[in-house]
């Protein structure tokens, strides 16, 4: 049952990266778009992502609940030593959701909407940024449980080049996912190629921050290269990720933009496998050489069994409902397009 719980944790993280990532990416693209062109992007993003934006956070909630119930030692350590980036990320989620609601449903269109737009855009950037920072810090081996001062215990562990590089890379990845997703939601070729150009820009920035990521890892003694290329599983996942990226752009240039989403998703899944496999079962690496394992630091068997049963039973109801939600809104959009 423990492995079922771990599988649910991994898949919830992946789905949050894919669905939530595209959601955040829409705000990131808006932030990087000239003000005169933002109205069209807002309309497209709301039409495509708006109906299911709340459902995206379900995957984050599931992941947090799994860690809280199934791996309390991990939850306790991370929530204490990374409470600053965690708080910033949660504030970003709350601010973004609030701004999204007010700017789309406020009946009075006045100067407040400019404030809503700014909050939405900046929180769309901040949230995935700190999500990447938290993930990178957990595996960087810089969490110091023996620290005797506040900066060493709660700031310097995450405020350094490697986590910041991963955070910026995560931002660009979200922007790229959103651009590819939205390119398949616009009818006109001019609008479509505008999103494709943004996807290129995000891919270029992601490559730049990936280089910075490897450099910073090398300077800080983090064996990132060995993690990603030093075992067969990660190496296969890297090859699949590279091939998926190539297929994504091949499909885009073949005017099969919607098909390209599959390969973009496969690329993200392969990257997650490549990064997470070398540490398994360790989920947090500590500065003193210790680690927290999701096998050795799991909750008692009775708790894990109850959690696994709850996850399996819940998926029977949640997954079909989610598929129906996405299908129903996709059908509604197609009917609207036909009417126009």
From TrEMBL:
Superkingdom of the source species: Bacteria
InterPro entries xrefs: Cyt-d_oxidase_su2
Keywords: Cell membrane, Membrane, Transmembrane, Transmembrane helix
Naturally occurring in which organism (per UniProt): Mucilaginibacter myungsuensis
Compartments where located: Cell membrane
GO cellular component: cytochrome complex; plasma membrane
Keyword Cell membrane listed: yes
Name the UniProt record assigns to this protein: Cytochrome d ubiquinol oxidase subunit II
Listed GO MF terms: electron transfer activity; oxidoreductase activity, acting on diphenols and related substances as donors, oxygen as acceptor
Record flagged with keyword Cell membrane: yes
TM region positions: 6-32, 52-71, 77-98, 119-141, 161-183, 204-222, 228-250, 262-280, 300-327
Protein family (similarity comment): Belongs to the cytochrome ubiquinol oxidase subunit 2 family.
